[in-house]
């Protein structure tokens, strides 16, 4: 009898939990939807009396607003106003995938049908729980600093941004978690005040729940911040809640759905508040539900395909590897020809731009000859799988110079003087060491194009970089071999090593259409990972800079 009672207790508990879940998330949402329908019927039945006392004001479109507002205060929301996208699901997916991993991202994707039927508040709570539960605060902050800004910038509404830019004081009130947007709004848009939903934490972790203050109510929060002083301009969308929010301002404008679908609403890269040079994360696309579903459907194909591509590069001759690589979807575009080698005992030094760890491999394949690559960082797995000889450098100028001199006496050498990868159309500062070691220098402009995964990371597992790049359906590598550097432009011709390095940087930048910068590996890692890209051990300093 006791055994039977114990067997029935656990199923009853599960049944009670299921009943509570259905009531809270489904029945409650359906009830709210039914009330909205009922209210809308009452609205139509009593439209004449409603208009006299409770009519929702019709505000002018954002295009009617003059942008010269230097001494005025502008308030708006980031969702569906400052950003063109209506749904914040893709940004929660970025938190889940980049900060929490692939299983958390899959769970969030599986919840999307449920999210479709929930009301806004329940939907937000579910996405917060799945994306944040058990996440370290520092991991979320890292994603907010290094990953999200790229996608926010690409999704900015140009009209709202230009109005915010011209304002004297900028304030943003939003229902989405503050931790997801505050860093971007303050660092990139110089927003003075950011108010968003606060999340509950225990120690250094997020619990996955909203704090006791609940989901932020924009109009109430605005009243608490400004008091009786009305902001000059309010911007919102066409929803009732946003109308209530912007009604507290002296002037109010709305962003209609039509304003966010035209190409004219997209902010061009050259108008970004500051250049987007560094960003992190694996995903190269905005992970909407359909796009994320396509990614998960591709993974069972992409992983074996990446392994196959690696194996053909290791095991087969160049011509066969190129042929099979093209058949598997790899696009290799080669411009220019390998210049003739002069009659001396030293090899040719190929100076490349640095896009991924595979730069030397694709150059070697393009030239159809073995090369030696020097790098400041290489995982054990990458070193084992590399189809060409690789040599680690130590960042000791004297030791590295001696090692490269020895390698040049043995054959041709590849070096990437930026010292770390950059995804965007910019070139980092070139180290001048290579210019002191060789007179036969061939600049090579290399670029990549991916559609699903980036093949570089600042905070993830670097041994997976080549695999992620080769998991793309159709990864593209462009290799442009420029002419050999004239002797009069080398150190042998009287130029300093810095002059040679800067000249080659400008030459490669012009060939690729990239902008040259004075930024370094240290700048990249301080921004993306909060460190200098160096890990100290007992014997040496190991660099993590690819």
From TrEMBL:
Keywords linked to the UniProt accession: Acyltransferase, Membrane, Transferase, Transmembrane, Transmembrane helix
Main location: membrane
TM region(s), chain numbering: 91-118, 283-301
Topological category with respect to the lipid bilayer: Multi-pass membrane protein
Lineage top rank: taxon: Eukaryota
Listed Pfam families: Acyltransferase, HAD_RAM2_N
Signal sequence range: none
Record-annotated Phospholipid/glycerol acyltransferase domain positions: 348-449
InterPro entries xref list: HAD_RAM2/GPAT1-8 (IPR056462), Plipid/glycerol_acylTrfase (IPR002123)
CDD domains: LPLAT
Location of the protein in the cell: Membrane
GO molecular function, one term: acyltransferase activity
Family: Belongs to the GPAT/DAPAT family.
Protein name: Glycerol-3-phosphate acyltransferase 1
Source organism of this protein record: Solanum pennellii
Gene giving rise to this polypeptide: LOC107024606
């Amino acid at each position: 009898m006791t055994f039977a009672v114990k067997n029935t207790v656990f199923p009853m508990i599960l049944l009670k939990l299921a009943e509570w879940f259905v009531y809270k998330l489904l029945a409650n949402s359906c009830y709210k939807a039914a009330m909205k329908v009922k209210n809308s019927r009452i609205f139509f039945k009593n439209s004449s009396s409603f208009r006299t006392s409770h009519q929702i004001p019709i505000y002018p479109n954002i295009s009617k607003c003059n942008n010269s507002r230097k001494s005025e205060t502008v308030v708006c929301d980031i969702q569906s106003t400052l950003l063109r996208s209506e749904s914040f699901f893709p940004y929660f997916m970025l938190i889940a995938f980049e900060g929490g991993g692939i299983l958390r991202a899959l769970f969030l994707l599986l919840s999307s049908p449920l999210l479709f039927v929930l009301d806004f508040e329940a939907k937000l709570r579910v996405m917060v729980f799945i994306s944040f539960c058990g996440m370290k605060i520092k991991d979320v902050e890292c994603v907010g600093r290094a990953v999200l800004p790229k996608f926010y910038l690409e999704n900015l509404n140009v009209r709202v941004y230009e109005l915010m830019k011209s304002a004297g004081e900028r304030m943003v009130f939003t229902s989405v978690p503050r931790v997801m947007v505050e860093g971007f709004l303050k660092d990139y848009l110089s927003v003075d005040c950011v108010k968003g939903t606060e999340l509950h934490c225990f120690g250094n972790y997020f619990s996955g729940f909203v704090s006791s203050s609940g989901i932020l109510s924009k109009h109430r929060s605005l009243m608490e911040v400004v008091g009786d002083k009305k902001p000059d301009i309010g911007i919102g969308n066409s929803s009732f809640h946003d109308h209530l929010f912007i009604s507290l301002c002296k002037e109010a404008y709305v962003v209609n759905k039509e304003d966010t679908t035209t190409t004219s609403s997209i902010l061009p890269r050259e108008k970004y508040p500051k250049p987007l040079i560094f960003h992190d994360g694996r995903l190269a696309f905005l992970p909407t539900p359909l796009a994320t579903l396509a990614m998960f459907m591709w993974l069972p194909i992409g992983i074996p395909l990446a392994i196959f591509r690696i194996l053909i590069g290791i095991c087969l001759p160049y011509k066969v590897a190129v042929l099979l690589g093209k058949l598997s979807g790899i696009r290799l575009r080669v411009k220019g020809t390998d210049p003739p080698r002069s009659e001396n005992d030293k090899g040719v030094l190929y100076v490349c731009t640095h896009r991924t760890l595979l730069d030397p491999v694709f150059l070697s394949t393009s030239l159809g000859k073995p090369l030696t690559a020097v790098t400041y960082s290489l995982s054990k797995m990458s070193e084992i799988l590399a189809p060409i000889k690789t040599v680690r450098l130590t960042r000791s100028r004297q030791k590295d110079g001696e090692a490269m001199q020895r390698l040049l006496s043995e054959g041709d050498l590849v070096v990437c003087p930026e010292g770390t990868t950059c995804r965007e159309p910019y070139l980092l500062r070139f180290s001048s060491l290579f210019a002191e070691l060789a007179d036969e220098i061939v600049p090579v402009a290399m670029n990549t194009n991916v559609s699903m995964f980036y093949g570089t990371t600042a905070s993830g597992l670097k041994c997976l970089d080549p695999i992620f790049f080769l998991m793309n359906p159709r990864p593209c590598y462009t290799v442009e071999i420029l002419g050999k550097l004239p002797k009069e432009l080398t150190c042998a011709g009287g130029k300093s090593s810095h002059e040679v390095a800067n000249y080659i940087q400008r030459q490669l930048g012009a060939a690729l259409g990239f902008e040259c910068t004075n930024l370094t590996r240290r700048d990249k890692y301080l921004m993306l990972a909060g460190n200098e890209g160096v890990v100290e051990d007992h014997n040496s300093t190991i660099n993590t800079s690819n």
